[in-house]
Amino acid sequence: MTREDMTPEAYGDLLDSIMPILLKNGLKATTMDFIASSLKMSKRTLYEIFKSKGDMISETLKTLHKRLAEANNEILKSSGNALEALLRGFLHHRDVMRMVNVDFFRDMDSLYADARKNCDPSKEAYLDNFVRVLETGASQGLFRKDINFMVQCKMVAIQMESLKRMEEIFPPDISLLEVYDSICIGFLRGISTPEGSAKLDALLEELNNELPEDETLRMTPRQPSENTHLTN
User: Fold this and answer.
1) Fewest CB atoms within 10 Å of the CB: 23, 78, 140, 191?
2) Backbone CA torsion sign across 167, 169, 174, 180
3) How far apart are CA 38 and CA 161, in angstroms?
């Protein structure tokens, strides 16, 4: 069976099944044998569908970005205001982050840079849309107007890049999810007006009430341990 033999729906379902395996195990550690075994299909069939492991990774990442963009559009349409849309968008991306192995990010840079470049156009489109939502929030009185939103969005992107160096930057008792939550919630707090801040607090409480206890947004600061020392 080749890619041409598959319906678009079947091909999309296959990529959706591969996606969590790559995110959880990282790209280098995930072999074609492992993918085939996990999906209960032969490696030969997998190579008939994809020319190479790199081709499979590239196709899966394009689908991931497409799925995220589609979800963002739906969230934007169904949200009452820009602040709610962004927070719920962050929460949807968080579902992906909960599956991600830090090695996945590092492997993207070191081993599959071409696959990452193929996703850059969709990332730029996402960034432009991000800025437009922020501008809408400013017109709604929720976000401050004295902010360069493009710069702020780029800064968030840089902070997300730091997740690749989790093991170097943060102590081992801090999880990737905690860092992600801090980046997203800290960003929204920093750009919000007093009205926006009040709405943000109410939304966070509402969302946390909807989430299982072990999945709630990490907003409470940690108490420093006895071995923590401040340095100059």
Assistant:
1) 78
2) negative
3) 29
Q: Which of 4, 10, 21 is nearest to 64 (CA)?
A: 21
| Interatomic CA distance for residues 135 and 49, integer angstroms | 43
Radius of gyration in angstroms for the set of CA atoms belonging to the chain, rounded to a whole number: 20
Task: Show Cβ contacts of residue 75 under 8 Å, excluding neighbours closer than 6 positions.
Answer: 85, 88, 89, 92
pLDDT in tens, 120-143: 555 677 778 889 999 999 999 999
DSSP 148-204: -HHHHHHHHHHHHHGGGGHHHHS-TTS-HHHHHHHHHHHHHHHHB-HHHHHHHHHHH
Of 170, 171, 174, 158, the C-alpha closest to 218 is 174
Distance separating alpha carbons of residues 33 and 25, to the nearest angstrom: 13
**What CA–CA distance (Å, rounded) separates 53 from 59?**
10
CA dist 171 → 165, 179, 226, 230 (Å)? 11, 11, 14, 14
Give per-residue pLDDT as tens, 45-65.
Answer: 999 999 999 899 989 988 888
What is this structure's pTM? 0.77
What are the two backbone dihedrals, phi and then psi, of residue 143, each rounded to the nearest 5 degrees?
-115, 145
| CB 40, CB 2: distance < 8 Å | no
Euclidean distance between CA atoms 151 and 125, whole angstroms: 15
